[in-house]
Write a structure and sequence with these properties.
Layout lengths: L14 H8 L5 H21 L7 H13 L3 H5 L9 E5 L7 H7 L4 E6 L2 H13 L6 E5 L2 H4 L9 E7 L4 H8 L3 E11 L4 H14 L1 E10 L6 E9 L13 H4 L9
Parallel strand pairs: 1-2, 1-4, 2-3, 4-5
Antiparallel strand pairs: 5-7, 6-7
Helix pairs in contact: 2-5, 2-6, 3-5, 8-9
Amino acid sequence: MASATGSRAADGVSRGQLWAALGWQPSSVQEEQLERLQEQLRHWNSRLNLTRLVDGDDYWIAQVFDSLWPLVPLLTNRGSSSEPLQLIDVGTGCGFPGLAVAVALPQAHLTLVDSVGRKLEAVGAMAEALGLGDRVTLHCERAERTGRRPDGRGRFDWALARAVASAPVVAEYLIPLLKPEGMALLYRGQWTAADRQDLERACKPLLARVVAVDQRHLPGGRGCRHAVVLSPAGPCPGVYPRAVGVPARQPLGTRSGR
């Protein structure tokens, strides 16, 4: 395997430059896992057309870097807790951010949720190929159902969602999954004052609050991204998440969603 500083992570960015920009350095084992993940993604993408982000900048920046940058404080400071973190990726799609996070947090357990069975089967096969099978659990179901499962509701330290739905809808998916001290991470592209107002209105009935909105320009001119972090302000009312399809049809904070 080529060295981290000499190998090319993307079309114009060396691997070393990429990790320096991220502020986290993977071990040699983790870097090899990320390379194998790219190979697995290419393999399954040729069968199922999972994503166009499989080569060069598309993989290393738009997939790996974008999955990990909001979590760098977590990657670099696990604190004194001996308990493995429990994270859930809702709407995992082709496996991001979930699989990248599983590689980067070798003691964590990841639950990956998607309603499309063929995608989730591919993600499961990728996890097994990387040796992550004992730390990755798959649920093929809608997010609304996950939030009502006894092994889902209130069980997670972090709940993640990337490119799933509007922020108020995603908040209703994620907040019920959190432990009292848990955090929800919404990966967003553009983010405006109006977006924040909509989300804050949606958070009120969920008894949640917006604790941070971080902005990052991705390397290689790959655009501006935002990480929106929510936390519970109290126990999420038992009526949330609402029935399958209702959060998307009637987003919280709107007249129809109340």
